[in-house]
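Possible regression after last week's pipeline update?

I re-ran a chain I had predicted before the update to compare outputs. Posting the input and the new output here so someone can diff against the archived version. Not blocking, just want to make sure nothing changed silently.
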Amino acid sequence: MTTQVQDHDKLVIYQIFTRLFGNQNTTNKFYGTHDENGVGKFNDITTAALKELKAFGITHIWYTGVIEHATMTDYTQNGIRQDHPLIVKGIAGSPYAVKDYYDVNPDLAVNVKDRMKEFEALVERTHANGLKVLIDFVPNHVARQYHSDAKPAGVKDFGEEDNTSVPFAATNNFYYIPGQDFKVPEGVKAPVAFAAPYTESPARATGNDVFQAQPTINDWFETIKLNYGVDYQNGRSKHFDPIPSTWLKMRDILTFWTRKGVDGFRCDMAEMVPVEFWAWVIPEIKKVNPKIIFIAEIYNPAEYHNYIRNGQFTYLYDKVGLYDALRRLMEGKGTVEDITRVWQNESGDIARHMLRFLENHDEQRIASKYFAGDPVVAIPAMTLSATLHTGPLMIYFGQEVGVNPTEAEGFQGEDGRTTIFDYWGVPEFQQWVNGGKFDGSKLTAQQKELRSFYQRLNHFVLNNEAIHRGKFFDLQYINVDGQSPDYDKTRVYSYLRYTDGQKLLCVYNFDKSRTIDTSVRIPEGVVRDTLGLDLAAQYQLKQVFPAADHSEVVTGSAMGSEGVQVSLPPVSVRIFEILKK
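New output (post-update):
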């Protein structure tokens, strides 16, 4: 029942969708333009904002959408090529359709010609406030009209030297469908006018491994797949010697951003790129910055060990696992028994590499009708995400004030997500920004209390050694099946987090309507041998999260025979520190 973990820093990552963060425009017109709906800038993320995030308990900020991507907004007057609207998703465009790896999104600059300087100033400002900088690295695909106008001298563009007459060549950057022109998917309509149809000849394979000239509207049709030396149409044969051109170009791109002071990369769809590339490139980048971190977006648990041990990723997304299990509980479905299955599947040292979250740019907002419908329901789930193991925690901007998207923004549609494709303002978050004061004075009392919970949680995980570097022991097995009175094995979950210097008992109630009064037993052998406590001695169990005056005095042996009495209101958590009386 015990999971061994190594001493490890507990990261608290705050994901900012940069285009939306500082936008105070409240127009929110369906398919509104840059000028109509407004757009947040690098400069909007001020020292005041960063100080507040530091005080909130954040250690790292993931600035999403930094690198230049395809857009319907016209920046030709600034020497930036126009993208064809039939191959762009949304007026603002998707940040995952990169069109210049060596440049930043002009939308985010007050002065477009100084856009890189404004980004560099943001990096410097972030560091000055004691925070680390993460950005996206999108390795699997690029925008269909990829063209770098900011690349350093001597750098060749992707595809510039490709042999387009063959479907695959190890020296090519793209995959081709020779003799066929690309066809825009049926049903794609552009919200802006255009003078001529989009042409691409020969057609190139689409980003989500579609090797045909016409993808569907549900494919990543706005992107083209990059070639890392894997021949997908011939048994996925690998051609890694000599080192493929795409590997070398990506190494140079990662080096470029690392030298700008970026502290880490969230790698989009990392499992669609061969693990051999990561095993080669991550050590290369660590030569530039030995402390650089790499986070893999990965959804195949069977590959977790491979991408950690061989690929050398620092952290992996925990979407297919804890997120899915907790989402079911928050929706009133599922069972806490799924949580046990999650940590059991994360055997060995996997757990400390898992990045826990309940929201990000891809997922529906907790407060939306498509998810829990109430952000308060997240309290036990978020606390468990933060305290189950030593790995990092992530919060998506606005999660802490209960953002609830209720209307279609444009391409995104009305689906419970905050748009990543459209120009928009986020009303609940704007209340916290408050015209650049970042003081939250316009938040409702309920929003202030929710944000206070997240702030207390962030500091709790950072300031308690049992959480940020302790071991884990699951208590479900001893408390279910009637061994502890009224212990609901489908809605109550309990475990220990402990070091030599601190012992914590964590207990959760995921039921939305029932207060559960129960006892939680800690077996005598665990009290004596695992926690190192004296069975005859008396101990005070002090409630430390949420902090309260409540405490209980029990002997070491009574923890096993009678258990610790706990009263759990609906969707609540109680964390007790076990102290020698």
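Follow-up from reviewer: compared with the archived run. The radius of gyration is 25 Å. Marking as no regression found.
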